[in-house]
Structures
1.
Amino acid sequence: MRVLVVEDEQLLADAVATGLRREAMAVDVVYDGAAALERIGVNDYDVVVLDRDLPLVHGDDVARKIVELGMPTRILMLTASGDVSDRVEGLELGADDYLPKPFAFSELTARVRALGRRTSVPLPPVLERAGIKLDPNRREVFRDGKEIQLAPKEFAVLEVLLRSEGAVVSAEQLLEKAWDENTDPFTNVVRVTVMTLRRKLGEPAVIVTVPGSGYRI
């Protein structure tokens, strides 16, 4: 899942981004509304965590632009105000969910994951294929009943492959969904991660390389 965090309190923004990355999400961070509009014009995001009171361009206008463009991106709006009227107004602007500050990180993570599931064809909460069972919420992976410990990027790559339901996923698509914009697209990070993931999943290998196209399970 790829997420954009838009928050002008830099310490909070960076903390949220770090926490979501530990949950195997690809996260970009910006600190004002103008930068947010620039990013959504370039990258496809599953979820935007959007502070309402932003400098340069207000969060309300960012939400309006996302809706105007007809993007499938879901918006989790943050605000320091917990008034019901503010929540209603935010939802009417196009936000899909609303979270007042201060908030528990576990709740933010759960809400981001719930919104991420709504950006594509509905899938079961637990993904299963070829003897592999992956629970995104619990961050657990099993193969034939045996639990497998994965690093965040390995987990993210496996989740993307399972969500494709047998379709081929290119290295570029994996890079977009599992890494943030700071990753050099010319590195071999995808290939190395897939190799490590294959080793941890064990034999027989379930991740198939499709020459010239990408990978599938």
Note: The longest strand covers residues 74-79.
2.
Amino acid sequence: MIRVLVAEDQSAVRAGLVLILGSAPDIKVVGEAADGEQAVALARELRPDLVLMDVQMPRLDGVSATRQVVAERLADVLVLTTFDLDEYVFGALRAGASGFLLKNTEARELLEAVRTLARGEGLIAPAVTRRLIAEFAAKPAREPGADPAVLDRLTRREREVLACLGEGLSNAGIAERLDMAEATVKTHVSRLLGKLELRSRVQAAVLAQELGI
């Protein structure tokens, strides 16, 4: 059972999300939050597997809430956004969100996105993700850029996997590209995240773009 906390300030939208998620036999909504502060508090209390997080909320925005949830390792975060690739989305990526979802996503795709993250796949809708990551990497950073020396921590194979993440490939896609078992890909992804001190595949993908690999 995948335990989900829904954080969305618009009650009608939140109710719709809860209804959709509740229709799946393998997903359980364990809590609802109407703002970012409540989202963080409930994540601490309920320890869900996933927080479905809107980016624009009162009291504490979704980006700041995501940063706290990720920093405390309370849950993975799936960010809800419009297709406008604005600073909210970029900030969510830097904050460690595991993936993102468009607000106009069909119910079936919402459920599959939740299941995808639960399987450890951090990149939702690869074609959209590649555009998002590319535009994010092209924007001037407000902090020092990534140091290429961090790649020295990785093996040759791990660098190849990191490059594939930068293209928005799923585990299955990486396995096909590099001719290896999907389980082996998962191991490489887990190891490189640990070596690079990253929380999510999305952060790894952004790093790959910033380093140009």
Note: The CA atoms of residues 166 and 208 lie 5 Å apart.
3.
Amino acid sequence: MAAPALERPTTPSGTQTVTIAKALNMGLRASLERDPKVLIMGEDVGKLGGVFRITDGLQKDFGEHRVLDTPLAESGIIGTAIGLAIRGYRPVCEIQFDGFIFPGFDQIISQLAKLHYRSQGKVKVPIVIRVPFGGGIGAVEHHSESPESLFAHIAGLKVVSCSNPVDAYWMLQQAIECDDPVLFFEPKRRYYEKAELDTSIDPLPLLSSRVVRPGSAVTVAAYGPMVRTCLDAATAAAEDGLDLEVVDLRALSPLDLGPVFESVRRTGRLVLVSEAPSEASVTSEIASRVQQECFYSLEAPVLRATGFDTPYPPSKLEEGFLPDLDRVLDVVDRSLAY
């Protein structure tokens, strides 16, 4: 089901400079104000305001009955949210770190993803599961995972990822308004990067990709934390006279590949970038689809700059694991060499 058009929030409109973290907080606040059935639940989301302070101040302003601190039990959080959703609520669950989601994996794939289909459309489960994901913060094991491909594979779930404050603000509200369950992946290492947010401008549809930097030489597509890396790579490439087009995928399931197809038909080349390992991933699905739809336009194979097919390394080694500007440009050079 597509998310309905959002009503304007009661928060003041206009342009302001905010971080992704602040934009997410503003989006949650707007949703809580708009609909009394919206609830926030998770570990330390109330009094503490979340480990990244995304829910800061919300329990104080909306009460413990709407912003609920839960036990350390992801399966219990998601299972309780399913029961609340069946009763007409719109729970927003926070998973503290990406690697903590797996105790709730069974609830998500066996129950949450199936209920609407199993009930022949009679039961709706409008649940958002917020997941801070990816590396780059020097964390310990289980705190830097990129599990998005696992959920993108599951029919019945929508999977999206924001990369900037504007999308963080609007996409989170759109996800909460959606009647289907949404996995909302937030790039934790980008939480405190700033950009201009104009709340008076109409947002893009939730399940859509977009070109964030036009170019003509090579198409570079990414999502979440890697969009900034690709934009930086495009800036560096421009100094050498190379014009890269950057596409922010935004929605990982279902994929909106129209802008990617259109771009590849113009450039003839595609480089895909993600922190997640490459095998059986979102990037491998996109590579397959582009080869199928744009075969006669391609001047080179679809290439990828991704995390390696290994467990996430200790923090001292993560700089070598994560794709950076140089690795992206190296793959671009390989594409142009064909």
Note: DSSP finds twelve helices and 14 strands in the chain.
